[in-house]
Each structure stands twice: as structure tokens, then as C-alpha cells.
Amino acid sequence: MSQIDELVRILGTQHVLAGEDAKPYTVDWRGRYSGAALAVAKPGTTDEVAQVVRWCAANNIPMVPQGGNTGLCGGATPDDSGEAVVISLARLNRVRGIDTDNDTMVAEAGCILQAVQQAAREADRLFPLSLAAEGSCTIGGNLATNAGGTQVLRYGNARDLVLGLEVVTAEGEVLHGLRGLRKDNTGYDLRNLYVGSEGTLGIITAASLKLYPLPVASCTALLALESVRDAVTVLSRARKGFGAALTGFELIAGNCLQGVVKCYPQQRIPFEGPSAAMPWYALLELSDSESADHARERFEAVVGDMLEAGLARDAVIAENITQSKALWHLRESIPLSEKEFGKSIKHDVSIPVSLMADFVETTNAALQKKFPGIQHVIFGHLGDGNLHYNVAPGGVYTEEELLSRQYDVYELVHDSVHRFHGSISAEHGVGQLKRDVLPRYKDPVEMALMWRIKQALDPRGLMNPGKVL
Amino acid sequence: MSQIDELVRILGTQHVLAGEDAKPYTVDWRGRYSGAALAVAKPGTTDEVAQVVRWCAANNIPMVPQGGNTGLCGGATPDDSGEAVVISLARLNRVRGIDTDNDTMVAEAGCILQAVQQAAREADRLFPLSLAAEGSCTIGGNLATNAGGTQVLRYGNARDLVLGLEVVTAEGEVLHGLRGLRKDNTGYDLRNLYVGSEGTLGIITAASLKLYPLPVASCTALLALESVRDAVTVLSRARKGFGAALTGFELIAGNCLQGVVKCYPQQRIPFEGPSAAMPWYALLELSDSESADHARERFEAVVGDMLEAGLARDAVIAENITQSKALWHLRESIPLSEKEFGKSIKHDVSIPVSLMADFVETTNAALQKKFPGIQHVIFGHLGDGNLHYNVAPGGVYTEEELLSRQYDVYELVHDSVHRFHGSISAEHGVGQLKRDVLPRYKDPVEMALMWRIKQALDPRGLMNPGKVL
């Protein structure tokens, strides 16, 4: 097979996979999407990426860039034609350098997120991007999908954490843009165009990342709340009271916590009596540049006011790092414990915070009307207006019944999101999953402009075809 | 003149200016650039902007969008052909709404920056963009040029303060993108493409802006320093010690302060003896969510350590708001007091913070070699790596002599910036001023991609021709 021979000539035989060896790269980690590939190319340097791209372009071969293959929308899985080359960035995994005075790090696309965090920590710095897949996702994938996570409230999305990019274009040229500058107004912002474009415009091979000082201490509190409306007021007061020290604000429906302790009996809800069975909870995290005592004192003052005002019905403030971790562990256990409710239909949406309560109320009611007895499983990053609004069979449907109606559920929820000026993909991206529904919700002028950009930067349509657009 | 009649039909006679009335719009505020216009169109609504653009496009007439006309690079001034229509956004000056729970404001492009700040303050919120021209520049111009200013260290550049845009495209279509979402991963980031493109891709007509809680208190300190190297270490310690409470870090050369007190004898340098004649100073600002006392205590602790370590030779911490303002006033008086040194050649550059000391040393030495006795006038936002590196006649050159060599000075300084991996335009943009030198310093692959974007979004080249590219 001469085509693969050419790739082997560029990369060496051990870095070109086909047949069975290629399989793990042609199916996503949840097994929801599967395809086939002509080959999997594993370049070890930016120049090799460029050579592979030039060879694919010359031979009209579609390319599917892949990082840790942890995406949730099928953005890194080839179609089933078997014509595409999967370009895995896994071997581009060096931290090229850390500049502590400039608070920047240059990392290659294939660096595992956790390794990036760790390298920063060893230099007494924080790289704040943090999400469930951090042990296996790559920074290149994080940037290509503009990943979110739990620290967005304070530090922003992946796009806000990058100063410059090295990119291999659709023609196989190298854009040398690894600037470490916080101010640079010399032309169009190509960086933000590649970030979030899911490999459809070019391949990110390295990034210049922002670092922050490590907080001296952090502290966590869990508040028991009566309503989403109260949660929104609590958020507003917390932003005022804590300023930028507020680094996390998670909203959790009561049934999610019940699900966690049912699934993991060694965990417990840290309240007694009625406070243990409230409809909503909020998890707040403070990062402090003074001390753990100071963080706790701040919590006591501000949360004390919220209790007094009747906004929070009860509150637990962690007394030490172990208790803080136990509270976060409750939150982090939700996704896996969701199986207690049966296989659910998941939505990753964002809504203006001010409309959140109305959105939840209206959407819940509409779902109940159409699917009586269905169960809502709702949690998310309220500080960013981001909800994981999931829908489970409850006691009244079988998983199969619900699954057979999943497109009805999607449409109902996404239509509602749209009416509340929200986004149908807050942090997971578009990929294959939401490509076809995008035009239903996106401004047609914006869709047309996106097509023009695609045409301008990838005129032959070889970069990750079938994704986003 | 039938062409203008058409514009009059769209906008009404009082909103189309020609002849003498058009003059103020065809010259920049410093009188450095002047041109001529077929007419000045002053639409009052987004729809009128779209109508004007469609009419211009249909008649092949170039368009020059203009906000407060306060730019420093000639980006809003038409060329002298007299063929272009200047589209002033001044009448689009409504704040369309403020959403305090969502911490967002929708403002039209022609809103004066100070009015945006004021509207936020009235809603008990902060809109943090702040710069010298805030009394007359517009938010549309701030976004079109990605303005910087004094709060970038904490809050970022203009691009970091916008969540969504309404844009009239080069064809006169309206992109309805006024989203108020902190997370939205549904396709390419068009927003950041228009931000900083200086009106060459389309016209921003309104923006959804991020608001922040108003700090409870702020406090300012002035530190006397021996070297830029010490300033960089002080910055690093301040970031660690204060976290996100550090909202300003300005570097000021000693001769700049001397210039201020010479020019404005009612001002004084708040030190005695040798501390009043140090080569460098740093102005630090803390914004606190607790109290003025707390801010001062934090300053005392962290700055105390710096004094003990010999990093700072002396320090003044403001005891009240009046003293804080007096310290900031010193910094803000520098640009106008520069006349004490004679008409200077100005550079708005950024450098990785870690290379700042070497850059200043090397560039100063190279300038002295080529122009013996020339005077360096250096100040800027060290926290963002942004220097206003200005060069004055000193005692040895006449203003005319220096002016006649200005391109030699530009080239020497910009070449040095380039060698130190910096940017030749940190916050002022490109406009006409730096358009022709851009290809000298920019990656050719990046320049080619910028041209492709321009071609894709403004294929007929009618949007602000002759600027940026």
C-alpha cells in the first residue's frame, strides 16, 4: 500500500499505524462514535506535522487531528469512509520552557493537561485550567475545543489562558506565533480563530500559556438553598464580597447529592435534618493570597450575612483542606453517580445567569408536560451560566424508551435554551454531535461568515471534515 | 451632487456632512493625519449603518468607520482621495441595557467610554477599561482597536471585556451576536476577529460587555527602585503576595517624575533625600473587597518584605484616597509633561517581562551609540510588559534634527523590540502609522493568513482601506 509507505518514509515505521493498531484512534473513548482511517500518523515534531499535512494536502487526503481523544462530541473521530489520516499529536509532548518572570509556559499540543499543571506547580505557578479529563486530555485538544471546567469564573476558558500559538496550516505551513505578550495589537487575532475551531482550520502544535501565582490557601463552603433564584442572588453577593478570590461557584440539585451518597455510601451530605434534603446546593471556593485562616474568616463574614438574610438556609465551611476536598469530591462524583438515575440524556448549555431560574422552571415544566415523571438531573458551573442539564428515565420510563425519544428531548431543551438567549454548547464544542442542529440556532449571517472563514483557511476542505460546519 | 443626495435620503439632511462641516472628521485629533471625504455619514441606528454600508458597497465607495477620533495611529482618518465616506458612530450612543445578575451591559458603539464606566457605577458595577482618552473615546473604537490602558494587569484588554458583538458586515448585513454568555462553544470566534481589526472587516455597532463588582476600597503605593531588574522581581512578588487584588503596576523612570514636578510645580515626589532621585519607580495599586484598612495592611506586609530584602529602596503607601489619587496623578501627568524634554519620538511596545531589563539596557546603549546624548523617557504598564519607550532631543539635538531622523529611531527601537520577541504595537494598533513596517516584523505566514481573512470578509476591499494591511 504505497500511500502508507510515503507516511512511513516521513515518520518511521513505528509511528504510522494501520489496521488493528489504528482502531483505538478511530473510536471515541465512550464508544459513541466510530469510523475508519487510512492510517494514524504520529509525528514527533512540528516539522513532521507540517510534512504530514503537506503530503495529505498534495494527495487530497482528509486529516483528523487528535489529542487525548477525550472529547464528548465526536470531534476527533474520523468518518467511516476510511479515507482520512488521523494525525495524533501525542508525541508532541514536551514543555519547551517556563518563564517565571513572564509567567508563561510554552507547551506542545500533546502535553497531558495534568502534566502542564504539574510543570507549572513545580515552578511555583498555577496553570488554572482544570476539568474531569485532565489526566488524559491534551492541552492541544483543550485549546482546539476551548475547554472550560471548574475555574472559568476566575480564570476564563482555555482561550483566555493562551497568549500565542504555533499552528500548522491546512497547506502545511508553520505559523510561528508563540508570543508571550499580554498586549499585542499588530493585526487580526488569528489565535482566537484557531482556538475553538476543533481542528477544522489548522493544527495547533504548541501554545504559549499564561501562568498565575499559586494561591497560598483555599477554602470551600457548601450552602443549602431553596431555589435557583436564591442561588443567583448568593452568586451576586459572593462576587461582591470576595472579588477575584471567588474561584468556584457550582450549583447542585439536591437529587444529585442524594445520588452521590446512594452510589458511594462512604460519602455523606454534611448537613442534618431538613438541610440535608434541600432542593439546591451551592459549592463555593475561595482562593486566598494570605492564609487559610483569612479565607475562612472571609467565608464566615460573607456567608454569615447570607444566612442572616435568609438567602442560604444552612452552610458548612470547611475547617481544613481535608474537609474542602471532601466537599469538592461530592461535586466531582456527580457525573459517575448519575447512573443511579438510569442512562440520561445530557445537555451542556449556558444561559445568562439572570435568566437561569426562569429557564430551569420553564424547561422542567415543558419536559414534565411532554414526558410525565421524567427526572431532572441538574448541576453545573453557575458562576459561568453553564448548566449540565441532564434528563433521566426516572421510575416511569425504560432507558430504551427514553433513548428512542432522545432527539425530542434535545430539541425541547435546546429550543428552550435558544429562547432564553443561551448556547446549546457551553464548553464541549460542536464536533459531529451538534453540527446538524447548529444552523437551527445560530444567526444565519454568522453561519455564512463561518463558512467564509473555513473557505479562506481551508479552501479544499481537508481539515477535520464533517465537524463544526 | 447626486451621490450625497442618496445618503441624505437615508439619514436626513442634518446627518450627512460635507465641505467645511466634514473637516473635523477628516483629520485626527493630534493633526498628524489628514485626508478628505466624499461625505461624513452619521447614522443613528444599526439599521441605518447597514443601509449606508449597502449603499457604499453598491456604489463601490470606500468606508472609514470612526468613533471618538482619538486614535494615535491614523486608523480613523480617510486618505486624501476624497472618495471615501466617513461613517461616524457618534449617534449610536445608547446603553441598551444593564443586567446586574448576569454582570453584563449592552452598549452601542458610539457610547463614550466614560459614560459606559458611569452607567456601570450607577448599577453598582465596575466596567474596568480605563485610559487617558476615556472622556472622548468611544467603546466601539476601543473594541475596534483592542484598547489597553491601566487595568489590563487584572482585567485584560478590551477584547477580554466583551462577550458578544453586533456587527455590520462589509456587505451591509447585520451579525446579531450580542450574547451575554461566558461560555459558548458553538463555532468560530468571530467576535475576537472583529475586535482589534480597526474597522477593516466590518463595523461594530454594539457590544455586550462584562461588568465586575466595584472594589470596596483601593490603595496605592510608590516604590523607589534601583533598576528595571528589581522592578521585575518586585512585580513577581507583588503578584504572589496580592493575587488578583493587584490591579495596577506602572514602571516610571526617575527623569519622568522629575519632568512632572518641573512642569507642574504644585505636584511633588513624595520622597526625601536620595529616594527622591532614584533611577526607577513603581506605582502599585491594590483593589480590595474588604476595606481600605485591609488593603493598607496588605501593602505594609508585602512591601515591608521588599524593603527588608533590599528590592525596594524606599516606599510610600497612601494613607487615604487623596494620597492615592496624588500618586496616580503623578503617573498620569507624565505624557503632558514630556514637553519638558522637547518633542519626543514615541514607541508603544511590549516585551516579555523577563527580557525587559535587557531590552531597556541594550536599546538605550544602541541609541546612545547612534545618537550620543539623546534622552530616554520611559514609563509604562510593566505588569503587561508594555512600555512607552520615548526618545527626546535631550540638550544636544534640536527638535528638527531629531524629527528628521525619526525613521532611523523607529527602526532601531523596533528592530530591538523584535529581537527581544516583543510587539511594535502593544496597545495603540497599526492604523496608517505602522502598516508599512508590519511585514518587516510579522511572520510571513501570519501576514498571508491575515490577507486571506481580509479577502474573505471584505472581498472588495472597501472597509477602511489602507489601514492595518
Describe this structure as you would to a colleague:
The structure is a homodimer of 469-residue chains. By secondary structure, chain A is of the alpha+beta class. The first copy, chain A, has four domains: 2-88, Uridine Diphospho-n-acetylenolpyruvylglucosamine Reductase, domain 2 (2-Layer Sandwich); 95-213, Uridine Diphospho-n-acetylenolpyruvylglucosamine Reductase, domain 3 (2-Layer Sandwich); 217-336, Alpha-Beta Plaits, CATH 3.30.70; 342-427, 2-Layer Sandwich (Alpha-Beta Plaits), CATH 3.30.70. Chain A has 16 helices and 18 strands. Chain A has helices spanning 2-11, 46-58, 113-122, 139-144, 152-155, 190-194, 228-242, 254-263, 292-308, 321-332, 334-337, 356-370, 399-404, 406-419, 438-441, 444-457, and strands spanning 16-17, 39-41, 63-66, 85-88, 95-99, 104-108, 125-126, 162-169, 174-177, 202-210, 212-213, 217-225, 246-253, 280-288, 314-317, 348-350, 375-381, 386-392. In chain A, strands 15-12-14-13-17-18-16 form a seven-stranded antiparallel beta sheet, with helices on both faces. In chain A, strands 5-6-10-8-9 form a five-stranded antiparallel beta sheet, with helices on both faces. In chain A, strand 17 and strand 18 form a beta hairpin. In chain A, helix 1 (2-11) packs antiparallel against helix 2 (46-58), helix 7 (228-242) packs across helix 9 (292-308) and helix 12 (356-370) runs antiparallel to helix 14. Chain A starts with a helix and ends in a 12-residue tail after the last helix. The mean pLDDT of chain A is 96. The interface between A and B is large, with 96 and 96 residues. Chains A, B: Belongs to the FAD-binding oxidoreductase/transferase type 4 family. Chains A, B: One of its GO terms (biological process) is respiratory electron transport chain. Chains A, B: This is FAD-binding oxidoreductase. Chains A, B: Pfam families: FAD-oxidase_C, FAD_binding_4. Chains A, B: It comes from Parapusillimonas granuli.
